[in-house]
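Entry for the shared binder. Reason: the reviewer on the internal report wants the predicted structure included alongside the sequence.
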Amino acid sequence: PRLLATGGVAQVVVLGGEFKQYQILASPQKMDYYRVSLDELLDASRQATGSASGGFMNEYGNEYIIRGMGRTNDLHEIGKSVIKILDGNPVKIEDVAELQIGAAPKIGDASKNAHPAVVMTVLKQPSVNTLELTDRIDVVIAELQSGLPPDIFIDAQVFRQSDFINAAISNINKVLIEGSIFVAIVLFVFLANWRATMISLLAIPISLLTAVMTLNLMGVTINTMSLGGMAIAIGLIVDDAIIDVENVLKRLKQNIQKPEQERKEKLKTVLDATIEIRPSIFIATLIIIVAFIPLFFLSGMEGKLLAPLGIAFIISLFASLIVSITLTPVLGSFLLTSEKMLKKNHKEGWLVQRLQNIYEKSLLKVMQFKKTVVAVSAILLIVTLFLMSRTGRSFLPDFNEGSLVINVVTMPGISLDESNKIGTLVEEILCKIPEIKVVTRRTGRAELDEHAQGVNSSELDAPFVINERSRDDFMQDVRDKLKNISGVSITVGQPISHRIDHMLSGTRANIAIKIFGTDLNKLFVISNQIKHAIDHIPGLVDISVEPQIEIPQVQIKPKRELLAHYGISIGAFNQFVDVAFAGEKVSEIFEGNKTYALVLRFNEDNRGKIENIRNTLIDTHDGIKIPLYYVADISSRSGPNTINRENVQRKTVVSVNVAGRDQRSAVEEIQSTINENINLPEGYFIEYGGQFESAADASRILLITSALSMLIIAFLLYHEFRDFKISSIILLNLPLALIGGVFSIFFTSNIISIPAIIGFISLFGIATRNGILLVSRYNALRDEGVSLHERIISGSKDRLNPILMTAITAGLALLPLALGGDLPGNEIQSPMAKVILGGLISSTLLNLFVVPVVYYFSEKNQKIKV
């Protein structure tokens, strides 16, 4: 109750210990002696603790409320409640029943580190901040702990979502800081001017603050996804400012070297330099934003997950564009126009000059082998497409949540005590693994828990800390140790991954093989055949069959003719079975502000064994009691524990996790193996569910929407240059970027996931920037009447500095994210970073040589218009 009173808490599920009950344990033999029917006892029990309102009265100038105080928590007083008058004497509840405080029949249990415990799961309300709620709960638990006996301890550190959130946000913050440092170093090295570096760097805090304020106005929280969007954008949000500052500084240096009478006014030089570069900046940034739009067409869980990343990225980038065309030139006019500074540093830095000389020589050499360059690029693209066809496919990368969720399912029909023994054995094994310090187990279900599962099912939480060995080795060790337990199906997952699988396939595993049919036994046999058929497939782990089998039952089947003979209706018969053996809650007992159920049922002598059930007494229409076996067949039989259906069809499920390979190839091999080895009877069929389905749907949506984005990008380029050939040359950066992106995936995870696909889409937008910078400069020189060869060499050399700076800052800013993919919070952004980083490397290097060559071929027959 204290936790439920905490603002933001939606539910507290309590499992373990014993659930207190006030119990009326009736004896049908005594009821027969006193001629008390079950209905009479039920009515008396329901009325035994009631209260009544008698209105009010006025006397002596006061208003008195009249209350009938029948409510009590004294069992002796409840027992004195009268059922009926027999031969002038009262028959009371205590005459026909024993009253006691006892434990409700257990439908679940819990433990910690193989010792009995009470485990409470606290669920939050929607839209409540997890970190703030966790802090409030910590305060409440500290208050509770201070008032508890010394031998009762509350451990609130077993599993906390806030731990993962804090770790994830901390890692993303670290990436942001490291990326910013890399950007600052690159800018200073290339610009060799601390003022120009500071002007460019100002774009980072201003753009990020703008993004944070906009996200706040939109109701989007600062989370790993929104921070991840900023982390991916960190190297790009300075690009516009870099290009502007670099061009302003260059033109100012060129201007100061001219004779004094030919020099322009400094402000005019700054303005002209900014206007010169502004169209390229604007169109390039707009194209990157357009390339990111397909992300917002994703639906379902992946759409909700990735939308904050896209919003943060686009807002940060748009803010950087505004900064670059407003604040950056203004600051440049104040800080970069010092004549003393310009004369002192009128030449480019040593590194820039060296790079320009190397690039000029290389480009002159390349221009002698133009056809070879194009052929080599085409071969690289063909190899890239081949490698892409060989890569695996998955929905989302594996999360690193720092906690395991292990499901242990034994055969249905097992008792809670036996299930506890198996669960305790699993706990003891897990506690011996060095990385695991604490294990909690929940077996069965809690009272009023909507997550229904039988006592044969246990769920264990095991937080872990990786020290000396890798995470893959640790996971393999866990599976190797648990697979030695016979007679159980074990699935190893993580909290978020576990819930994702549950939402997508209804199972606790990556892949659900669903077998549909009519006969439950046949379905179970086919499921086991499938399990044995796919057991040898590499990369498949935690293969388990949903245990829909027949379990032992005590069946009480009415003899309808005899029921009619004794005047017992089916309704009365069913009520008798329900009340006598299961028990019925007849009232509530209040102890202060706590409530407990008052339950009526027969005592153990009349319900503990089949023979007792056979001989227990049931009421007839004339008040005489007869043994139950007179009017019913009581036998030990078997029946289904559960019958699961989907789309009005009975089904069983074979659950499979995937480790060490991609999900798509695993599913394809599973399908092939099942088709070759399993013959299904008529009317039986198989469907496959899981993350791969969502991956296929999301990939299809992204493919269609990215094609539309490419068309919009092509239109924007044509609108800018009014030349189809020029637009096509710039679009060459897309396949050039694809080369590096695919190679980076192939040599790292070799798996293309949804984040990686989004990385490719955003890369296409980013890669066009360099092409726009080159081609726009070529066109400007053409308008000045420069020859084709000279404009290519001079224009390329002129744009080398901004191209390298923007590419290196964007790449190095992504490096911490790409390398830290196994850290919490980086899992989704890391594949995107790897793709963009690899694509930037290939598109930048190839762009500097392939685009000039292709531009030469497209322009060699064109006459210069003067």
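Summary line for the report: The first helix runs from residue 28 to 33.
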